[in-house]
Design brief:
mainly beta
Length: 398
Amino acid sequence: MTIRGREIKRSHILIGSAVLVGIAIILFFLLRGGDTTGGSAGEDDGSFFGFLFGGSSVSPKPLDNTATGDDTEQPEQYLFRITNEPVAGATISSDGTSLRYFKKTTGHLFENSFTGDKEQRISNITTLAILNAQWTPSKEYAIISYYTNGAVRRFYSHYSGTSTITSAVLPNDIIDITTSKTDEKIAYLVSSGAETMLLTANPDNTGIKNVFSTPFPDFELSWPVTNRIGLKTRSSAYAPSVLYTLNPSTKQLTRVLDEKEGLDVLWSPDGTGFLSMKTSREGTNVALRVVSLQDNTAVDFPFVTLPEKCVWAPSKERVLYCAIPQQIPSGTHVPDEWWQGSVSFDDALWRIYVDTGIRQQLLSAYQLDAINLFTDKEESFLFFSNKKDGLLWSLRLR
């Protein structure tokens, strides 16, 4: 290479480039003060190349809050790991001021603050191989599912304050079970000869009523409001599913959605609508819509995700909090392969206002495959579990 008549050898160029990079590295650490912790959302990612070329990333701030001797002001922590062990049945306590969850290793019930710094054990009833737990609206009853002797079994526990009052097993032949979102009731399916019966009961399994019978056993249950129980045939990318609703008082059965592959729904808190998913080409194409049964309308959802990676806000506005995968690999068959664990996602967290179309990113994509989302009543925190390891997290919203 020749510059202004002088020949410059390639080796000289390489040496000069290396010197410039070395100077940039020294300046970077001098200016940065040696800090290697992750930044908050929207800040520089703190890496060498981020320093040189810009860009941002999100990394949870370490939970070790011990003093470092540095008097400089630290950035506000916004993402908190609540537990160091996998949990099930995470929920807000009855007074709305703390979290409750079961640890999967023992089945013991714990209570903790929204930021994970005040854990205390509530109940020491040991339940190994706990799968999940569903709560009644009062948060006094939990329906706990666990795995034993090659089968799923269930029992209820009744809690008052920080103690367990009663606990008893539920029938062994339960196919699926749910708690009402509005009443202290449960609903479950049991097989009886060639038929499957839908029963409702109090959480302690008293006051049992047979409200529906069907020859088809393969339903999943939901109970969003008093007069509407959802019955959906099991979702799969390889087979169509249908959605019905049943009024348990009048026993009127209504077909809501026709056969669609990959069908899944997330009911709104008032039970007048839902977020629905359908797939095509064996789950490789995913489409979501927000359906209003009241207005008989449907709005296309602006992201690709799964309904079980979303939660409706407790406010009266139609607001969804969703974990949106950064990428769903081409050819992935959802939801089946995701359920089976053969594929995992890295999610960003978003707030979506359904009626206005406004979208707000709350957390950039990180190594969190978020499930079981919920908020406190004031929507000051968003809680979720990481499907990759079962740990519970919280994200400060304000």
